[in-house]
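User: I'm preparing a small set of examples for a lab meeting where we compare how different chains pack in three dimensions. I only have the primary sequence for this one, and I'd like the structure in token form so I can line it up with the others. Please keep the answer compact; I'll paste it straight into my notes.
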Amino acid sequence: MKLRVLMAVLMTVAPLPVAGQGFGLGAHAGFNGFGADAGVALNSRVVLRGGVSVVPDDYFLTSLLPADVSGVDYQVLLPQRTLRLGLDLHILGPVRLMGGVIHRGQDLIAEATVTQSIDLGGTTYTQSGTVQATLDQNSLMPYGGIGFGNLSSGFGLYMDIGLAYSSEAAVVMNASGELAAAPGIDDALQREADEFLSDAPAILKHLYPMLQIGLKFGM
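Assistant: Understood. Below is the structure token output for the 219-residue chain.
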């Protein structure tokens, strides 16, 4: 609902003759999956952007994102769908600044399957099950970054590099299967969650990376 309201406001304040300024479409791949973008030039420097990204099953990028904590290998599960709406400000040739909001249907999750034993918060458990660490953030987040390529004109490549910010963020861990009933598991999971970010600045849990490269066709 918030995203639809924001889109309506942006379209209301956009000048009426935007169709003559330039329009483009793009297809991309990146941290948020495969997807498509559309851009409408509001003037010679400002482009209104919208896009959607979807992460398919067995997405190739997840295998490149190992998460090892206390010797446990976690598989990273990316949010399945991400929507984006914002503005591009072209400052120098193909270089542009970008800003807006993203909406994610799910949080970032790291998951480990326990078949023999696992160390959680300094305690070893031999029960089988699954452990999940969720980076619990806002579903709607503002973002900013830098990009290359004008989506609303020409044919070629474009790239977006940025960060989204969540005002509320926490690492939440839970267990399932036999492991969920093990003595002291809740305290051990809390210690393990604290260890996830113990060696990194606390601000990192409030950030969400944005990186994608694509092929555009503008008119």
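A couple of notes for your slides: The chain has two helices and 15 strands. Confidence is low (pLDDT under 50) at residues 5-20.

User: Perfect, thanks.
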